[in-house]
Amino acid sequence: MLVSTASVLGTRVSGTARRASTVLVTLLGLLALTFFIGRVMPLDPVLAVVGPDADSSTYDQVYRAMGLDQPIWVQFGLYLNDLLHGDFGNALLTGHPVLDDIKRVFPATIELATLAILFGIVIGLPLGVVAASNQGRVGDHVARVITLFGYSTPIFWVGMMGLLVFYAWLGWAGGAGRIDLAYDGMVPDITGLLLIDTALAGDWEAFTSALRHIVLPGLILGLNSVAYISRMTRSFMLEQLSQEYIITARVKGLSRRQVVWGHAFRNILVQLLTVVALAYGSLLEGAVLIETVFAWPGFGQYLTSSLMLGDMNAVMGCVLVIGLIFVALNLISDALYKVFDPRTR
């Protein structure tokens, strides 16, 4: 019994060690690839600091101060050493530490992406179930059209049309930014999430303003998630509806609703965990176009501005955060797999 317990514990420890080493190698490879690509890009970070009118001596001084005179592998080693000490460097764009900038802009993207993924779940899951349970009929065709629209329509075009119709013409939605200028800076910064902060402060006028600003970009950003989640749900459901246990359930006289939702849908919940997790991660790092169209001061806009400026400290910090997000979401989905599906334990 003791030998068996020790064997199980040893297996778990070795599995955890392998997982940890895989995560570290993945993040290191991601950082190395981004760092080397950043060094060969036709952008000069020195000019972003000194300006195009600086003399050659000033340029050379800043060039050496930034460590660009060192071999590229030495530069990467120095960057990793700073990273291990919690130093992400300073951003050229703002002059502030990169980590502080990310802490400032990331809540705006979390708020936007969370609304988008909720929209994707609420619409995408039922849409995929309806499509699978009505294969080849009207419901299936309607779901396919919606999925095609979500995949193929340029999101920046939908964003501009949404602003034109719902903001400029109808006046239903808020304009650019996260909140009206009258409330900007008036809400206590507790969590960085405006909807939560305004609610905690009891400022319901500011809450309404923040809600009017986030609904339109959040729903438009969620279109791709609706398409992805509904498509995967339909595929999983079709596989389940062709299984023998579904035929047995129908023979027993169970209603269509019980068969579809009580049996088939319950058996795909575990698979959908990974789908939703990956969709959420994609929203967190892929909200660039929507943030640009709606002047949303979030993570995507910060990353794009830093990339255009050649600010590799900020770009590297953002890439590391994105990598950590995807790794964390995959680990969480694996853990939930083991909770909800005993066969994976």
TrEMBL record:
Membrane topology: Multi-pass membrane protein
InterPro entries named in the record: BPD_transp_1_N, MetI-like, MetI-like_sf
CDD domains, alphabetized: TM_PBP2
GO-annotated molecular function: dipeptide transmembrane transporter activity
Protein's cellular compartments: Cell membrane
Keywords in alphabetical order: Cell membrane, Membrane, Transmembrane, Transmembrane helix, Transport
Protein name as it appears in the record: Putative D,D-dipeptide transport system permease protein DdpB
Organism name: Pseudomonas reidholzensis
